[in-house]
Each structure stands twice: as structure tokens, then as C-alpha cells.
Amino acid sequence: MIDLRSDTKTQPSPGMREAIANALVGDEQRREDPTVNELERRVADLLGQEESVFVPTATMANEIALRTLSEPGDELIAEENAHILLSELGGPAVHAGVMTRPIRGRAGRFGPDEVQRMVRRTDATHVPPTRVVAIENTHNASGGRVWPLEEIQALVGTSRELELSVHLDGARVLNAAVASGVPA
Fold this sequence. Notes:
Elements: H1 14-22, H2 34-47, H3 58-69, E1 75-79, H4 83-86, H5 91-96, E2 99-103, H6 112-118, E3 130-136, H7 149-161, E4 165-169, H8 173-180
Parallel strand pairs: 1-2, 1-3, 3-4
């Protein structure tokens, strides 16, 4: 069996080890590492973005995103078994000062109706305002299930109507693209 849940469950192949050993290296802190620069360029192109930045872990990527999408005291809502809620050692609270609230999901997913029901208004007294909706695709705790693109689009549409930011934990987004046949 090939276990694709996490890169921590695999080992590099001999070809991968050879590529690592032969890779051109430079000072990535000065943006002089040609291998990192090429990786960032290719990922930006793949995802249709101007730029991308390499970070060493998906947890770090999630925490950076939350810090840019929220302010301390804001609330994030996500499916109750989401990695960002259960497997990041309280990172949203520690790094972004964000409160988290779980949404009961189905196979790692939830819909626009749940978001509308869960959102807390910014003028509410004594409760954190909901600012971020987080989704995970593929959803690790539900066996790598893929969110259908139409469901994501509906969720994003409702979130934008409610003036909420949407964060995609895309640690396995390329798995979702392959499984669904939808280009990344």
C-alpha cells in the first residue's frame, strides 16, 4: 500500500535522493537559491499567482495565512476534525490570537448553510467576530476525501457575501486536483 496521508509517512526514493544531492544550492535567505526560486516560480505558475513562498511545513503555511487574514481576537470556523483545529498544537491561538470554533461536518465538509448559522456578527457584544472560514482539501481525518469544486465555490460565495475570508489548507491540494480531474 502507498500511504499518501503525509510526507512523514514516506521515504525519498533513490531518484529523489540523487536529485537532492545534485540540486543547485544558494542562500535562500537572500533569494539566491536557484532550486527554491524555481520551485516558488513553478508553484506560482501552477496556481495562477504572481508569486509563492516556500515554507518548511504545512502548519507554518496555515499559521502565516491566518495571521494575514485575521486580527487577534477574531474567530475562525472550520470542520470539527480539521487539521488546523486538532493537529497544530493550538497554533491559531498561539500565533494569530484567533479563537477557533468547530462546525459539525460530513466527511470533512460543511456547506454555506452551516457558515450562515455559525457566523458571529462584528457588532456582537462579548464574543469574537467570525472572520475566517477554513476548509481542508483533501480532508486528512476523513481518509483524504475531496471537496467537490462546486461545493467549495458555493461556500466561498456565501463567505464573501458575509465578508469572511476563506483559507484553504491545501497541504494535499494536488491530490485533490488529481482525484477530481480539476486542474490545480
